[in-house]
Structures are given as C-alpha cells and as structure tokens.
C-alpha cells in the first residue's frame, strides 16, 4: 500500500491530473488484447469561420453596410501576423483576416487566391491541452506545438489540413 502511494506521488502532476479527470472510459478487445479508450476532452460549437481578404476595409463595409452585420474594430495581432475584424452572427462569428507584416502566414494564401477566400474553421474545445496531447497521440499534426493566445484572449492551436480532410482547423479553449 505504501509502495503504491509512494509511486503515485512521484508521478508528474500532469499525469495525475490526466488520470483523475477521465470522464468516460470504455474497454474493448482488439486481437485478444484489452484496450482502454478514454474521453478526456470534447468538441464544442463552431466559434468562427475565417475568411482572408485582400481589402479589409472593403470586406468590413460589405458585412456592416450592405449586409447589416455587427462588426468589431480592427484588431492587429502581430504575434499571429494578421489583422482581424469579427462579424457577429448570433452564437458564432465570421473572422475577416488580412496580412500584417512581411512574415504573415496568410500572405501566401492571398498570393494564391487574389480575391481571398475561406481560410479555416475554429471549433471550441473544453480542454485544449488535453485535446493537443490526445491528437498528437493519434498522429494528428499540430502546426504549433504550444498553444498561443488568440484574438479572443484564449489559447488556440491549429491542426494540419492534410490530417483534417483538407481543412485548416483551429481549436480554441471554450
């Protein structure tokens, strides 16, 4: 008993946290071996759909003046290399993206798509760190190995489009 307790206490805190926070555990057999599948995170709602635009002012005017949408002010995000404007659509949003700076990750997208277009979808998750760990274990490539703070002030991570049916997926902490 004391030996088991000593071993448990010597485990790193993130391992103990992962073990104690399992919500649902399923067991099944595969080739005679008992396997356990655990669900430690879950998807939420679509937070936003991001569109790259060559002219942020023109796109903002379209959604605000022509379509009557509620739009945010421009928000430069130098750490992401973009300027954003959000269009409110009830419980979801459209994110208008425009390159910021010479090393903007969306400039190559705009170079290939002169008129702009859909760039990514953002889905909320209840635990981004557990999601990242689980997805890595399932061989889903993350475009950044550490979560970054996104436009809403919450941690975000992008998943490689080749692992997500050709779609760039952003996960955001709910």
Automatic annotation (TrEMBL):
Coiled-coil boundaries: none
Cited InterPro entries: Glyas_Bleomycin-R_OHBP_Dase (IPR029068), MeMalonyl-CoA_epimerase (IPR017515), MMCE/EMCE_epimerase (IPR051785), VOC_core (IPR037523)
Domain VOC: 45-174
Family: Belongs to the methylmalonyl-CoA epimerase family.
MF GO annotations: metal ion binding; methylmalonyl-CoA epimerase activity
PANTHER family for the chain: METHYLMALONYL-COA EPIMERASE (PTHR43048), METHYLMALONYL-COA EPIMERASE, MITOCHONDRIAL (PTHR43048:SF3)
Pfam families assigned: Glyoxalase_4
The protein's role, per its UniProt record: Methylmalonyl-CoA epimerase involved in propionyl-CoA metabolism.
Protein name listed in UniProt: Methylmalonyl-CoA epimerase, mitochondrial
EC numbers, comma separated: 5.1.99.1
Keyword hit for Transferase: no
Species in which this protein is naturally found: Plakobranchus ocellatus
Residue intervals passing through the bilayer: none
GO biological process annotation, one example: L-methylmalonyl-CoA metabolic process
Annotated catalysed reactions: (R)-methylmalonyl-CoA = (S)-methylmalonyl-CoA
GO cellular component, one term: mitochondrion
Keywords: Cobalt, Isomerase, Metal-binding
């Amino acid at each position: 008993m004391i030996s088991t307790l000593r071993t448990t206490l010597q485990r790193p805190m993130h391992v103990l946290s992962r073990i104690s926070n399992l919500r649902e555990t399923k067991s099944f057999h595969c080739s005679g071996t008992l396997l356990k599948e655990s669900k430690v995170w879950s998807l939420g709602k679509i937070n936003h759909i991001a569109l790259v635009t060559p002219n942020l002012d023109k796109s903002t005017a379209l959604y605000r003046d022509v379509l009557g949408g509620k739009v945010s002010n421009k928000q430069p995000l130098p750490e992401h290399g973009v300027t954003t404007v959000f269009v409110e659509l009830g419980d979801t949003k459209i994110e208008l993206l425009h390159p910021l700076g010479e090393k903007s990750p969306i400039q190559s997208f705009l170079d290939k798509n002169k008129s702009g277009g859909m760039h990514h979808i953002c889905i909320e998750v209840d635990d981004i760190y557990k999601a990242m760990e689980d997805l890595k274990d399932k061989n889903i490539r993350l475009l950044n190995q550490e979560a970054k703070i996104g436009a809403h002030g919450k941690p975000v991570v992008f998943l490689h489009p080749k692992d997500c049916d050709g779609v760039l997926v952003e996960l955001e902490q709910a």
